[in-house]
Amino acid sequence: MFAISRSSALLVSRAAFRRSFAAVQAADKHTLVLVRHGESTWNLENVFTGWYDCPLSEKGHGEAQDGGKLIAAEGIKADIAYTSLLKRAIRTLWHVLEQTDRMWIPVNKCWELNERHYGALQGLDKQETVDKYGKDQVLVWRRSYDVPPPPVDKSSPHHPANDERYSGREWPEEFTESLATTLERVVPFYESEIVPKLKAGSTVLIAAHGNSLRALVKHLDSIDESTIAELNIPTGTPLVYELDENLKPIPQPNAIAPLQGRYLGDQDAIRQRIEGVKNQTK
Ligand SMILES: O=C(O)[C@@H](CO)OP(=O)(O)O
C-alpha cells in the first residue's frame, strides 16, 4: 500500500530537482543595497560638506525613513550593514534598520565610506562659489574624475588630523580628494571587507554618501570616467543590486543607465531628485 507509482516518483524527483536548482540559483545571487543619506542640513543650505559632520535635516529624516519602508516592502532583509563615520549616514542607517526591523544586525562604521573630502571648499556656499569661480570651474571640482578641489592644510579645522575620529592614521600635510582618490579607498574597502560577506551569502546594506557611492557604482557598473561625471545619486533612495556568482551586477528592470541596480520608489520622483542634486550649482 506504500508503493509509489513510477509516474509519481518522477514527479517527486522533478519537484526536488526544481527546489535544489532554485537553492543553487539563490546561493549564486547576492543582494547589495546602497542608500545615500537623507538630505542633510548642509544639503538644505547648499553648502559644500565633504567630511563636515552635519546632521540630517527634518526632510532628510523623513527621506531615510521612507527609504527604509521601501526596503521593507520589497522584503529585503540585510544581514550586515556598513556606514561611514559621519552622522548623516549613520542616522540614515539607523532609520533604515528601524523601518526594516533589523536593528539587531552587525553594523560597521568605517572612514573609507566617508563622503569625498572637499578640501578648501568645505563650508562654502555652492552658489557663491559659482559666482566667484564660475560654473565650469565648480563643475570640474564637483564632478570631474580626477581634478581635486584646493586642499586644506593642518591649520584648518577641516583637516582630518584635527578630528579625533581619524586619529591613529597618518594624514598628508595638505588634504583634499577627487573622485579618483575617493575610489582608491572605497573600492579596496569594498573588495576586502564587503565582498567576502556577499560571497558568504549575506545581504549587505551600505548607507553612505553621494560621492563615496559614485565611486562604488563606478566600480560595480564599470562606468567610464566621462560618464561618471554625469551621474548624480539622490538622497535617501535605496539602490538595489543583484549580483551574479562573480559579483557582477545582473541588469535590473527599471534601472536608470548607466546603473544596473534599480532604485526603489516612484521613478519620476527619483529622476526629479537626481536633477535636484545636479542643479545645486547652475
Ligand atoms: O557637499 C558635498 O559633500 C557633496 C554631497 O552633498 O556635494 P556634491 O553633490 O556637490 O558633490
List the helices and strands and how they pair.
Blueprint: H1 6-28, E1 30-36, H2 41-44, H3 58-73, E2 80-83, H4 87-99, E3 107-109, H5 126-133, H6 135-143, E4 152-153, E5 174-175, H7 179-199, E6 204-208, H8 210-220, H9 225-228, E7 239-243, E8 262-263, H10 267-278
Parallel strand pairs: 1-6, 2-3, 2-6
Antiparallel strand pairs: 1-7, 4-5, 7-8
This protein binds 2-phosphoglyceric acid.
Offer a few descriptive terms.
282 residues, alpha/beta, Rossmann fold, two-stranded antiparallel ribbon, 8 strands, 43% helix, globular, binds 2-phosphoglyceric acid, His_Pase_superF_clade-1
General description of the model:
This protein is α/β, with parallel strands linked by helices and 282 residues long. It has one domain (30-278): 3-Layer(aba) Sandwich (Rossmann fold), CATH 3.40.50. Helices cover 43% and strands 11% of the residues. The strands form 2 sheets. Strands 3-2-6-1-7-8 form a 6-stranded mixed β-sheet. Strands 4-5 form a two-stranded antiparallel ribbon. The chain starts with 5 loop residues before the first helix and ends with a helix. The chain binds 2-phosphoglyceric acid (2PG). 2-phosphoglyceric acid is lined by residues 43, 48-50, 115, 118, 142, 210-211, 277, 280.
